[in-house]
Amino acid sequence: MTKAVQKIILSPSRDIPFDKLVLSQSNVRRIKAGVSVEELAEDIARRGLLQSLSVRPVLADDGTETGKFEIPAGGRRFQALSLLVKQKRLTKTTPIPCIVRDAVSDILAEDDSLAENMQRVALHPLDQFRAFVALRDKGQSDAEIAAAFFVTPQIVKQRLKLASVAPALLEVYAEDGMTLEQLMAFTVNPDHARQVQVWDVIHSSWNKEPFQIRRMLTETSVRASDRRAVFVGVEAYEAAGGTMLHDLFQGDDGGWLEDPALLDRLVTEKLQAEAEAVAVEGWKWSRSRSTCPTATATAFGLCRVIRHR
Prior knowledge:
Elements: E1 13-17, E2 21-23, H1 37-47, E3 53-59, E4 65-73, H2 75-86, E5 95-100, H3 109-118, H4 125-137, H5 142-149, H6 153-163, H7 167-174, H8 180-186, H9 192-202, H10 210-217, E6 222-223, H11 227-232, H12 234-239, E7 244-245, E8 256-257, H13 260-280, E9 283-286, H14 295-299, E10 303-306
């Protein structure tokens, strides 16, 4: 004989005026964590209450309902609503969406409070990165996204950068095959093919440190602190069509110049221009380092000496 399947009955939902709600002593959350109550209040003010409060009727000593409802699950949301009421941005009679548990339920209030917090699954960082991309693609600026989620525009830029890593590597990260620090290192070079090549080399190696990833991704580039780059100037290099690599997650000493051939050409052109300028003044060039009167000439093995008249 087939056993009858027991039907599940969900607790009803209803709007309850704010002034009829009280925080339950059965709420298991005691330690503050995550988003502050002030930030949560601002989020509720902006987008409304996204999740109903879980409440139970408060009973009098004789077992009758008092008209009040206690909140064992949703205490931080209630505190945020309380702050909005205190700021007079919500009225005391504002209806609040609630799920109402039966007062005589076999499920304890502490059980509800614990379950709500323990069964919550945190969003994977990659999902957050991709969500920021979706918001930007729909027209929101970095500043608008930052304001909506109480982070700085720099953090938004970093998360958008993480989402731009090669899709194959994002999947590795999603499956816990790569750390967040390693993923950060891959953002230093936007070339997806090169990112994958580097991962293919190091993923089975003993040295998978982020600094090694950065080193490999920038090994054909020139540091902005290199004397050639300093001599020419990054602005002049970029004006000539040169591109830069930058690290958004740690100091990069000005970044890397991605086109060494262009840089060398600019160095040669600038040296030639300086040589022509001093020639007009009656100077001549020499290879003798011992007589170099200028730092620029010394740096490149070229010297200027006074022409004997």
